[in-house]
Amino acid sequence: MAVFGCVTVAVTSCSKHDANSPGVEYMPDMYRSPSLETNSFSIVANADGSFDTIETNRLPVAGTIARGFMPFPYANTPEGYELAKLNAHNPLERNDMNTKQGEELYGKYCVHCHGATGEGDGLVGGKLPGPPPPYTAPDKINMTEGELFHIIAYGKGLMGPHSSLLTADERWKLVLYVQHLQHPDGMPAPVADSVAAKEVKVKEKSKKGK
Amino acid sequence: MDTLCTKSQKQIPVIFSFLFLSIIFSINSVSAQDGAKLFKQNCAVCHSLGTNKLTGPGLAGIASRAPGDAWLMKWIKNNNEVIKSGDAYATKILAENNGAQMTVFADLKDEELKAIVAYIKAPPVEVKPVVTNADGGGAAPEEKGVNPLAILIGVIAFLIIIVGVLRGVSHSLKNLQREKSGLEEIEQVGVWRELKIWMGTHKRTMALIVLFVLGGVLSATWDALMGIGVYEGYHPSQPIAFSHKIHAGDNAINCQYCHSGVEKGKTAGIPTVNVCMNCHKGISKGPSGEKGTAEIAKIYAAAGWDPDKGAYTKPQRPIIWTKVHNLPDFVFFSHAQHVKVGKQDCANCHGDVKTMTTVQQVSPLTMGWCIDCHRKTEVPGMKDNPYYESLHAKLKEKFKNLPKEEQVITVAKMGGIECGKCHY
User: Fold this and answer.
1) pLDDT over 90, % of chain A
2) ipTM of this model?
3) Of the candidates B105, B231, B330, which has its C-beta nearest A22's C-beta?
4) pTM for this structure?
């Protein structure tokens, strides 16, 4: 009985008083993985006997591309923006399913700044130095899909890049939904687009001619 | 027809007067106050009124730098044209900002431009918010809690003393009585001996008491041993005092904005600093007082962000967060499976994180807890997904002979409690 008492006191007294200690651990080698887990840190020994703490989340080796990943060919520069504006096109079909999925994504990734209707009245948007401009502002309403995609991927003004959060497919779905918010009664005929595309084609031809 | 005509004719003066009034109002209202509003709507996304650079340069001291009001108005309306005209100051600031051009505001009217220029030249002096003061005083002094163990020990000691005193009193009273009736005084018996005598005469009660105490000790020991490796209630402090209450609660940011891996992979993921910076590039002050500002400065230090220059120029260093929810290495768990297919809400396992200042583990994360849920839960994503149609039909067929309430196709019925599902 005395032994049990001692065990009870010993086990109960040293657990969960310190918020920073998870408590008594049973066979720690089964909890702490020797293989590297996501978002963790690992201590590695160097050749000279010193130790380094390394993150397990690493960037891909320079010059390599992750499997299934398609790089966006337009750079994060004003020139890249202009090129994407004219040349980047949505590979997804504009249909209810894609727009609906875009809406779901919008509710997770955009709504807190841009607001539910894209007016820029989100809760976080109001706390920024300036709220995001409404999607239907005269200079925003006719943005091309390439422009919207470039902005989601790289950011613009106070908006940060979202390419680490969203795959290219998801970004295109968001483009569909943002355009749906801008033109709830259906997209206008893509006059500007075709003119711009023609211009680019002419430019390319003239370049080839040179 | 007649009535219609008269109606519309009646309306004409009304419409005119309304138009006239609105014109008067619109002329009157483009004032300094509107300058502030216009600035917030159009400019504040990229420019601060201080010296710090956001996306564009800070506008403090603009009056002494820029060539004049007319130039500023022209620049704001269409900076493209000013640059094209070969203006010297325009080329200079374009070079200073690495060739990044400002947005063109062709729709702004002259009065509006005037109001904006007037506002940025003489912005109102920022009044220090009273909130910080109230907050400084509002921080309630920490309550000095008395250790409950100390109280218990105190009470026990007090009772022992009282019992001792009462025993002495009763003994002397007894002797007084004996003296009165002419009997001999009796010696006081020690507590221990008296107890032994009592135990000898009450054997059955004693056996019951021993059983009771032994049972209590055993069950306490069992509970304590079962608690080993169960981290329910674990709430460690983090390198940055990030509050889920402020982010997910007050600002209603969706969990997935930061934990974006939850539908795609095994782990929900801890956001990298660039995700923090998506908002904190613009928000450098906490909602209440100095603490938030100091904590946000830690993000800047990790990201290498220089808030004055508005650029990532400093060395970066990773934030080493403390993991709260940890599953043993020998069990496989995928967030994608539970959130995307199982359509489980984050709160089902993680509790009401929206109200937590420091995240606390609310579920035991034991195997019994997992299996309990697998036995009760249907898979909502399966019913509507054509991919599972034939499987769902087969399962329905398989369990059709069971009583009605057991026909629900739970995770367990699909093999969700097979050992190899999670342990391999």
Assistant:
1) 38
2) 0.81
3) B231
4) 0.72
Every domain of chain A and the residues it spans: 78-206
Q: CA-to-CA distance for B215 and B310, rounded, in angstroms?
A: 67
Answer yes or no: do B329 and A33 touch at CB < 8 A: yes
Given an 8 Å threshold on Cβ–Cβ distance, is B256 in contact with A109?
Answer: yes
Residue with tokens 């608690």, as numbered in its chain: B227
Residue among B285, B383, B358 nearest A20 (CA): B358
- What CATH homologous superfamily does B31-121 map to? Cytochrome c-like domain (1.10.760.10)
Here the tokens at position B235 are 């709430």
Per-residue DSSP letters for A166-195?
S-HHHHHHHHHHHHHHH-TT-PPP-HHHHH
Cα B117 to Cα B39: distance, rounded to the nearest angstrom = 9
Nearest by CB to A39, from B40, B270, B278: name it: B270
CATH of domain A78-206: 1.10.760.10
Q: Is 80 exceeded by the pLDDT of residue A28?
A: no
Question: Quick check: B306 and B51 in contact, CB under 8 A?
Answer: no
Burial class from Cβ neighbours inside 10 Å (0-12, 13-18, 19+) for residue B402 reads exposed
What does the alpha-carbon distance between residue B371 and residue B373 come to, in Å, rounded to a whole number?
5
3-state secondary structure at position A41: strand
Beta bridge partners of A41: A55
